[in-house]
Design a protein that fits this description.
The protein is 51% helix and 14% strand. It is built from nine helices and seven strands. Strands 5-4-1-6-7 form a five-stranded parallel sheet, with helices on both faces. The protein has a two-stranded antiparallel sheet with strand order 2-3. The protein folds into two domains: 2-65 and 224-250, no CATH class; 79-212, HUPs (Rossmann fold), CATH 3.40.50.620. The longest helix is centred in the C-terminal third of the chain and has 25 residues, at 226-250. With 254 residues, it is of the alpha/beta class. Helix 8 (191-203) links the parallel strand 6 (185-189) and strand 7 (209-212).
Amino acid sequence: MTERFFRKLIRYPNQIGSIHLIAAFFALFALWRRRRAQIAVVIVVLVWCFGTGWFAKPLMNLAQYGYVQTTTEPVFAPDTTIVLLGGGTDKTDDGLVPKADSMARIASTATLYKQCRASGAHCRVILSGGDPQRHGEAEADNYAPYVIAQGVDPADLIRENKSYNTYQNAQNVSGIIGHAHDNGLIVVTSAYHMRRALAAFGVFGYSPQPYVSDERSNRITLLPRFRTFENSELAVHELVGIARFHVWRWLRLY
């Protein structure tokens, strides 16, 4: 029963972030009546710090450490596989669309593919991402038309649309490429996600070339900004995800 519980957590990981931490303090405020004044002060300070960049800036810098402005010219092997890791989708009036970070990954993947083809190598693209948000369509399937529209030949495109997290991205991609990774593997994702992505692929014996599609910058302001709250949430979630990955590895669940 315990193992089944952990397996369920691995497949559907908790979305822990700054908003959830603040929500926990609100719960304490409702339950711990004798300390409401102190808790209220803490809530105000937390909201202000998360929204003005005092937390977002160092947290995001830590999440992106080692992968900010470090993307170099890729080396294309005779047989090269470019893996685009899913970054979510958004529901809009026009339907389901890739998130902004995902659009950056799509553009970078298309650029790499064109450069790879120009080098004379045999190139293929794997879109890796299921539907962890339960929006009704896998990320890989949602991204495919955008990648094709930017120049990727459908014949060179593979959709891996079953993964729910970064570990499963690497696991499912490994099932597709097998030992072909020795001929060249490039992983495309955002700077804040790259450390966890490479660690996941390392579990399966891969040492892919990292290609950073985008990075997030933060500035400290006097008044809270929605973008800064978003960055705080994203950074905390990513750092918790890295810690969780190493705990699962220690527990031999990965």
